[in-house]
C-alpha cells in the first residue's frame, strides 16, 4: 500500500493525536469536485472512478471522534441500526446530511453526533477536515476530525444507532490492518480495490474504512 515505508518511519510509539493536529492544522473543507475522493482510493484513482458516482451528490458530514484516553487514544464508531434506508447495519461515524440550519459541515457533524449518540459538543474539539468523499448512495461527505475528552456518557437513538464501540487509534491507523477488498460497482462494469479493517468481531469497510485510510495517508504526508 502507498505510504507504508513512511508509516514505519514514524515508529510504533507515535503520538497520533499530536500528528493529526499537526497535519490538519488550518485545514478547511474541500468541496471542489476536483478534490473529491472515493473512499479508500488515492486522489489519482478517485479521478478515474468518480464517473460511476452521482454528479450532484447530497452534501453530508461525519464526525471522526478521536477519544484522548491518556496513552491509549481510540476512535469512536457506531453500528448503524438495521432498519435504516442507507448503509443499514454497517459500521460508521456519526453523521448525516447537512441541513439548512447548519452553519457549516462541522456544525452538521456535531449536531448529528449529539442526536445519534448523545455526544455533547462541550467535550469535542474540532481539529480539521479531510477532503470530501463521495459514496455510491449519493452523498458527498465532509469528514470532520475532532478530539474528544474522555469521561462522556452516550445516549443512543435506537432508530439510528444499534451500538457504539472504540478501536485503538494506533490499530486503525496501522497500514498492516488496511486489507484490500475488491468492490464491483453496481451501476457499471468496473471494479476498484477498496479497504476493510477487521477489529475483533467488527468489520469496518466502505466509506468508514476509506476515511480512516485517508486520515492515515494525511498523517504520513502521502495523500496521492
Mean of residue pLDDT values: 87
CATH topology: Nucleoside Triphosphate Pyrophosphohydrolase
What summary fits the major beta sheet?
8 strands, mixed
- What is the H/E string? HHHEEEEHEEEEHEEEH
The CATH homology group name: Nucleoside Triphosphate Pyrophosphohydrolase
Helical/strand content category: alpha+beta
Which architecture per CATH?
A: Alpha-Beta Complex
Overall tally of structural domains:
1
Radius of gyration: 16 Å
- The geometry reads as globular
Helix content class: 10-25%
- The CATH C-level class name: Alpha Beta
Q: How many separate helices?
A: 6
Low confidence ranges: 1-9
Ends distance: 11 Å
The count of DSSP E runs of length 2 or more, i.e. the number of strands, is 11
Beta-strand residue fraction: 25-35%
Tags for this model:
single chain; 224 residues; alpha+beta; Nucleoside Triphosphate Pyrophosphohydrolase; 8-stranded mixed β-sheet; 3-stranded antiparallel β-sheet; 6 helices; 24% helix
Tell me what you see in this structure:
The chain is built from six helices and eleven strands. With 224 residues, the protein is α+β, with helices and mostly antiparallel strands. The protein has a single domain (16-216), classed as Nucleoside Triphosphate Pyrophosphohydrolase.
Brief write-up:
The protein is α+β, with helices and mostly antiparallel strands and 224 residues long. Helix content is 24%, strand content 30%. The protein is built from six helices and eleven strands.
List the helices and strands and how they pair.
Blueprint: H1 4-10, H2 16-24, H3 43-49, E1 58-67, E2 74-80, E3 91-92, E4 95-97, H4 105-117, E5 124-129, E6 133-135, E7 139-148, E8 161-168, H5 169-172, E9 179-184, E10 191-199, E11 202-205, H6 206-219
Parallel strand pairs: 1-7
Antiparallel strand pairs: 1-2, 1-4, 2-3, 2-8, 5-7, 6-7, 9-10, 10-11
